[in-house]
From TrEMBL:
Keyword Glycosyltransferase: yes
Highest taxon, organism lineage: Bacteria
Keyword set, alphabetical order: Glycosyltransferase, Transferase
Residues of the Glycosyltransferase 2-like domain: 13-170
Protein name: GT2 family glycosyltransferase
Source organism: Microlunatus capsulatus
């Protein structure tokens, strides 16, 4: 989908990075090419901003090699939430902010797809693209069967309630009008993207899916580990509870409701895992453990405990 709109727009593509200089060196030339292609297709001015969260500034020489299209900034406060908030601040004069992770690569037409859908859908609050995993090295059939790295897909134009920032376009003019940014207070706990996007949709603004805008997520061998994926499911559950509590005001009734739902998930997950072991198959067993781990995280979150998914 090629964006075509008479009004000029300033676009910032943001990459948060932490000690992944080699992967960043692969990603940045692709982003430069897509930014140039977008500018050639319409009245756009596109800049790539690298937000480096490494105290040693390891990404600086990689970014400098692609100036002036790529601009480097160093965020001293540790944590992914601070990095995302810095990206919003660095794009203060732009109309659109697009996020992609430093361990991802965009498919052809990714950036034009996001902007094209944004215009075609009447400039919603955000456009969410597809994230497809690819695995380096030997994969674990249990992890694949459990769908630990698979993400949902929808037809283009489908409205969604929340999104991660792994492949996300945000309307900055709307964020500025609402006084919204990513919550730096979340530090390394994660969930700042879900919190922001859910805040937008709960206020009546739209997040729209674009299935053509695909990025490929490179899964390293270190993550092809059962304990790692279960810890991640646990962390996502804790984040989900924490966000729900925030919207509900954090009262006792909300905590009890969330705790009851979390216990039900744990029980259902353990039952599914047991049935899988008794003959239901590898997928049922793995998905059962995934559900139980997320439920356990939700329970911990409902009880007020924090889980730092991105701790170093």
């Amino acid at each position: 989908m090629t964006p075509n709109h008479p009004e000029s727009s300033a676009v910032v593509v943001a990459v948060l990075t932490f000690r992944r200089a080699d992967q960043l060196a692969v990603l940045l030339p692709q982003l430069v090419d897509q930014a140039a292609g977008l500018d050639a297709a319409g009245p756009w001015t596109t800049t790539v901003v690298v937000v480096d969260n490494d105290a040693a500034r390891s990404a600086e020489p990689v970014a400098a090699a692609h100036a002036p299209r790529v601009r480097y900034v160093h965020e001293e406060t540790p944590g992914i939430a601070a990095g995302r908030a810095r990206a919003v601040a660095e794009a203060a004069d732009a109309d659109v902010l697009v996020f992609i992770d430093d361990d991802e690569e965009p498919a052809p037409g990714w950036l034009t797809g996001l902007l094209g859908t944004w215009h075609a859908e009447g400039r919603p609050a955000g456009v969410v693209g597809r994230v497809s995993p690819t695995y380096a090295g030997v994969t674990d059939p249990w992890i694949e069967a459990g769908g630990f790295f698979k993400r949902r897909r929808y037809p283009t134009g489908t409205e969604v309630a929340a999104a991660s920032s792994a492949n996300l376009l945000l309307d900055l003019r709307l964020l500025r009008a609402l006084g919204l940014t990513f919550d730096r207070g979340l530090g390394m706990r994660g969930g700042e993207d879900t919190l922001l996007t859910r805040t937008l949709t709960r206020a009546g603004h739209r997040l729209v899916w674009c299935d053509e805008a695909e990025v490929v997520d490179h899964i390293p061998p270190a993550r092809m580990d059962r304990r790692w994926v279960l810890r991640r499911a646990f962390s996502h559950g804790a984040v989900a509870s924490r966000i729900e509590l925030g919207f509900a005001g954090g009262g006792v009734t909300a905590r009890l409701r969330l705790a009851a739902g979390a216990l039900a998930r744990v029980a259902a997950g353990l039952l599914r895992a047991l049935l899988g072991r008794l003959g239901g198959g590898l997928g049922q067993r793995a998905r059962g453990w995934r559900l139980a781990a997320k439920g356990a995280g939700m329970l911990v979150g409902a009880l007020g405990r924090d889980v730092a998914e991105y701790r170093r």
